[in-house]
Specification:
By secondary structure, the protein is mainly alpha-helical. The chain has 14 helices and 5 strands. α8 crosses α9 and α11 packs across α13. It starts with 5 loop residues before the first strand and ends with a helix.
């Protein structure tokens, strides 16, 4: 029998998940369940790296995220779904790895530099923020993952994990495999205002949005900025609504909309309404699964406990090897 390769990935619980989160990660995770031994975790400790001043909503975000995951199609029968803080071994391995990780490795991390600029209003001069790649490495190598599904921009995160695993193995003997970055396709999807879709920009369509809320948001989307009147020909190439059509509308509809837009045969209002209905239909299976799990909170709680138990068994076995390797 062929043993499936193991992959691991996680998300920080900082609020509702939106379409960008779905197409950027969740959609691929759901597909990977068939071919990999999957471990997916809610990274609540990681949420503290930037939101340490007020952690009061993290517990609620954890529950919301698990609902989003189950609604999107992650299966507790196919994948191990768990909460990071429920497996204390992550903290122990993080501590041990921090002893051997050179500070310059962390300071050169491109994400670290980028976040310092983007989140300039927050005090990020903490060890936790600087050292989060070490905790991330602990999360990954704890389960001896063969790969980590990421987009191209996240490859440096996996590379520093490989370096830390390599350094540990050099000092203490071969314990950890070096995980590979599993590159996954991430279609371009912008927010309502053509900026990156983000809850902080108030431009996101959330997986949990009701149909009428989706229709309302779509009606506010920016289209071709050069098309002033319905009688003016449009340019679908620069229209965000057309990008959404390509994701959510049938192929024949996409072709029709493209032709009608270029010839001014269809106005932006009608085009948005067509896309909104297709988006609502696309999200219907997710909405139905969400209703199912929302009405069964005890089932969701059991999924979290069961996933944590399985993750803990694996992590305890790993930590026995680690303690033996470092003779502590």
């Amino acid at each position: 029998m062929t043993t499936k390769k193991r992959i691991l990935s996680g998300m920080r619980p900082t609020g509702q998940l939106h379409l960008g989160n779905y197409h950027g990660a969740l959609e691929n995770w759901v597909k990977m369940q068939e071919d990999y031994d999957c471990f997916f975790f809610i990274a609540d400790w990681h949420a503290l790296t930037s939101d340490y001043e007020d952690p009061s909503r993290i517990a609620d975000y954890v529950k919301d995220m698990m609902l989003d995951w189950l609604s999107a199609g992650l299966s507790p029968e196919q994948s191990t779904l768990f909460v990071q803080s429920h497996v204390k071994e992550h903290a122990e391995l993080f501590l041990l790895l921090s002893m051997i990780t050179p500070v310059p490795w962390l300071e050169r991390n491109p994400t670290y530099k980028d976040q310092i600029v983007q989140l300039e209003k927050k005090d990020l001069s903490t060890f936790g923020f600087l050292g989060y790649p070490v905790l991330q490495a602990a999360d990954i190598i704890m389960y001896k993952a063969d790969g980590v599904p990421v987009g191209v921009d996240q490859v440096p995160h996996v590379e520093i994990t490989r370096e830390i695993a390599r350094r540990f193995n050099y000092f203490y003997g071969k314990v950890f495999p070096e995980p590979d970055a599993v590159l996954t396709p991430t279609p371009k999807i912008l927010g309502l205002d053509r900026r990156k879709m983000s809850k902080s920009y108030n431009n996101a369509i959330f997986l949990s949005d009701a149909p009428d809320e989706i229709r309302k948001k779509v009606s506010q989307m920016i289209t071709d900025p050069d098309r002033a009147r319905k009688s003016d020909p449009g340019n679908p190439v620069i229209c965000n609504v057309f990008d959404f059509h390509k994701l959510y509308s049938p192929g024949e509809t996409v072709q029709e909309v493209e032709g009608q837009c270029c010839s001014a045969g269809i106005g932006c209002v009608q085009c948005k309404k067509m896309m909104a209905e297709n988006l609502v239909e696309y999200l219907t299976p997710m909405r139905e699964r969400r209703i199912y799990y929302e009405s069964r909170p005890e089932t969701v709680a059991e999924i979290i406990v069961t996933g944590g138990d399985k993750a803990r068994r694996v992590s305890q076995a790993t930590m026995e090897e680690v303690r033996s390797a470092i003779r502590i």
